[in-house]
Design a protein that fits this description.
Elements (H helix, E strand, L loop, with lengths): L3 H13 L13 E5 L9 H10 L4 E4 L4 H6 L6 E6 L4 H6 L1 H13 L6 E7 L3 H4 L4 H17 L7 E3 L1 E3 L3 E2 L8 E2 L4 H13 L4 E4 L2 H7 L6 H4 L10 E3 L4 E3 L2 H15 L7 E6 L14 H16 L14 E3 L48 E4 L7 H12 L21 H15 L13 E4 L18 H8 L16 H10 L2 H14 L1
Parallel strand pairs: 1-2, 1-13, 2-3, 3-4, 4-5, 6-9, 9-12, 12-13
Antiparallel strand pairs: 7-8, 10-11, 14-15
Length: 511
């Protein structure tokens, strides 16, 4: 048994020689979170094969799943494993417990399984404030255990925070950490600086937009191009922000700078967009999800940086790989995934020109459907449908009564099928998906049930083979201990008042 004072000595030595410790590659990456609240989750070997086929190189697990860690052996996939919140007390209280945890969950698999980081807890400062005093002792104990196992050069340890730990986030130059948490955050940042580890943040522009959509432009949230006059302006730095995520990241950098910490980078451990929601979440759509995640990936892989730090691009983990259909309401909780549990795409990302990440998302597969603007005039839509099935010579046989695409029997559904039929018949040529402004091109497959849209018939056999070789199995026990996302919404909403008061003034200034 290892004596506590010996581990303390190891910790002290490791902090003195902090320049030897582990860090991620200088190249920014896009990873994915893998939750297991899935009724038909792939068996571990099939899951890993799927990850490799998709060319996913970084994943984050919410628990050190032994089956997945074994299956990752011999691959080039970097994995971050998490310590659940309910183990925080035990690890903070005992160096021996921390050493045992590292030996059992890291040393037992590394280096054949490329464990890159240990993520301690989940949003402890905001979801379990009573446990805040435990964070730094637990981090130190885990780091000392890594030193003892001679893994500190390969594996770092940090802890993810909610965006709510940062107050007054816009303009970013006026942001600062919640002063009631400063006694915990400052020494934690010093630890991250000494061990060359990143500040982990869970950043969700979706929630910022949903709670304040009368003030935040959707285009800004989705990384869509904005004219210079509509970009968010920080009046103190004159920096222009073309997307909300960059503003949230820079708010973290300014908050650290206010505490005289300038050498800790930001790692976004969770971000994403749901593809489906209930009646109160009208912007949780496949179109918005694919737009956000596609543009997010491009933004990271283009090494765009942020306005404050154009030389530094934060790596991100998309939340999440699979729809977790076992999650509790609201509906969006079960619909954050890029794929269903059996590896079929929830929607098809637009990946053209940004590398081989997510290989089977078939970047060339596009569809023409009705524009999702809720203000589309039904008379205009009906006229466009009549033209497509008449002079346009689209094949509209499948939307006739009794045929596979007749239901749901409404103009929007029938028009989408007719538009796609015409669009595909024209070889997806520019201008063939317009219909007087009521149509749009999407990579999200609009097929449903037995109704297969014309564009879906062009899917490659290779994509189909991936689906066939990754059939489902029952999910294992869920070991995750995480904050309900509704709590995250509430926490974020509570700190946004100043943000949008400032933002409103800026909008008036820009106008």
């Amino acid at each position: 048994m290892i004596k506590s004072n010996y581990l303390s000595l190891l910790l002290l030595l490791s902090l003195i020689h902090y320049h030897h410790v582990a860090t991620f590659s200088d190249d920014p990456f896009v990873g994915v979170n893998i939750g297991t609240d899935v009724s038909n989750l792939l068996p571990a070997p099939d899951l890993v094969n799927f990850l490799m086929h998709q060319k996913i190189t970084h994943i984050r697990l919410y628990d050190p799943n032994p089956d997945i860690l074994r299956a990752l052996s011999g691959t080039h996939i970097h994995v971050t494993i998490s310590v659940p919140n309910n183990q925080l007390l035990a690890i903070a209280s005992s160096n021996t417990t921390a050493t045992s945890w590292i030996r059992r969950n890291v040393a037992a698999y590394h280096p054949s399984t490329r464990i890159a980081a240990v993520s301690l807890g989940d949003e402890v400062l905001s979801s379990l404030p009573s446990a805040a005093p435990l964070l730094l002792p637990a981090l130190r104990s885990l780091h000392a255990a890594l030193v003892y196992s001679n893994l500190h050069n390969d594996v770092f340890v940090s802890t993810p925070h909610s965006a709510s730990v940062i107050l007054n986030p816009f303009p970013p130059s006026q942001a600062f950490f919640n002063q009631t948490l400063e006694t915990f955050i400052l020494p934690l940042l010093h630890f991250l600086s000494q061990t060359n580890s990143p500040l982990m943040l869970n950043l969700y522009p979706y929630y910022v937009f949903m709670q304040n959509r009368n003030l935040v432009p959707l285009e800004n949230t989705l990384f869509k191009p904005l004219p210079f006059s509509k970009q968010m302006l920080d009046p103190n730095t004159l920096l222009h922000y073309t997307n909300l995520l960059d503003a949230m990241i820079d708010a973290a950098y300014f908050s650290m700078k206010n505490l005289n910490v300038t050498d800790v980078t930001v790692l976004v451990t969770e971000t994403g967009w749901p593809s489906r929601g209930d009646s109160k979440e009208p912007y949780a759509t496949p179109s918005n999800a694919l737009t956000y995640n596609s543009n997010l990936i491009k933004h990271v892989l283009d090494r765009s940086g942020t306005p404050l730090h154009p030389e530094t691009t934060s790596s991100v983990y998309i939340y999440e790989l699979f729809n977790e259909d076992l999650r509790s309401p609201p509906v969006s909780e079960a619909n954050w995934g890029l794929f269903y549990g059996n590896a079929t795409p929830a929607y098809l990302l637009r990946m053209s020109g940004i590398g081989s990440f997510l290989a089977s998302d078939n970047a060339n597969q596009t569809y023409c459907v009705v524009e999702e603007d809720h203000g589309v005039d039904l008379k205009t839509l009906q006229a466009a449908l009549d033209w497509a099935c008449g002079p346009g010579r689209a094949n509209c046989s499948e939307i006739q009564p009794g045929e596979s695409c007749f239901q749901p029997n409404n103009v929007k559904n029938h028009a989408s099928y007719a538009f796609d039929s015409y669009y595909q018949s024209q070889g997806k040529s520019p201008g063939s998906c317009d219909f007087k402004g009521v149509a749009m091109i999407t990579t999200s497959d609009p097929s449903h049930g037995k109704c297969i849209f014309p564009g879906s018939k062009n899917l490659t056999n290779k994509t189909k083979e991936v689906v066939n070789t990754t059939q489902s199995s029952n999910a294992g026990d869920n070991l995750r201990f995480r904050t309900f996302r509704s709590m995250k919404i509430s926490a974020i909403n509570n700190i946004l008042h100043n943000y949008f008061a400032a933002f409103t003034i800026l909008l008036l200034f820009l106008l």
